[in-house]
């Protein structure tokens, strides 16, 4: 072999050794960087929280999984993975006030309703609540507390700066923000969570979609309870949206224009949230396409009423 060939061979050998060493170092570095982490793969399961009562409104606390009939988009579901009952749950409540100009006429009655809940139904030491107001933007006025007097104080000044605010109403953004920022996952699993919402349903400034609101309510296990001072009307667009949202979140909407049923409605809400069942199932017909799946839960053997989400959006 000529001297030129030997030199070329030596240079090539050194180059290959450097490349191999570099590749090994890069592989080792990658392995060292990624080894502490794991990839989380979504599991195709649906978790439902619901309340069951007899025809007189008393909670049913002895249901078995065999008592419940479940369907998903009209198809019976049999792969129920867990079924648990939670009596006497602690409460975590968000009190959300629409303080836009269209709601100022109803302000006193809404303040009275929220104060009645805070002083008579919220249990010190176990329950907590926060107060948020919104119009063109949302603002937390009172952070989480079990002190009813602190809640009442914040309620008294909930619209004190309304005259300085202009613009639209962000109902969807505010609900989304409340669910995203106020409920931690570990707390959401072990309490009755709901938003006590005072609004007419007219949203004209939110960036959040209705489906996003329904999704985050379900993920945080937060039901919407709307107290409306309007007469029920099938022509009201705001009422249509609110009715859909409370159904998808597992809550209720109360129409009480004269304010004669406030205490009774608050007690219904209280009963719904204190006593709950949690059911987890693996749907037989879910595709990751973002479509809405309608859920039907009933008690064909026992009879009674179930209050829970009307459906969910399949993950994309």
Please, could you describe this protein's structure?
The chain is of the alpha/beta class. It has helices at 3-34, 107-120, 148-156, 171-182, 185-188, 210-219, 237-249, 262-274, and strands spanning 46-53, 69-72, 75-76, 80-86, 91-98, 128-134, 138-145, 192-198, 222-228, 252-255, 276-281, 292-298, 305-307, 311-313. The strands form three sheets. It has a six-stranded mixed β-sheet, with helices on both faces. Strands 4-11-1-13 form a four-stranded antiparallel β-sheet. It has a four-stranded antiparallel β-sheet with strand order 3-2-12-14. The N and C termini lie far apart (64 Å).
Classification by helices and strands: alpha/beta
CATH topology of the largest domain: Rossmann fold
The appropriate CATH architecture of the largest domain is: 3-Layer(aba) Sandwich
User: Roughly how many Å is the radius of gyration?
Assistant: 27 Å
The mean pLDDT is 85
| Unreliable spans | 2-42
Give the total of domains: 3
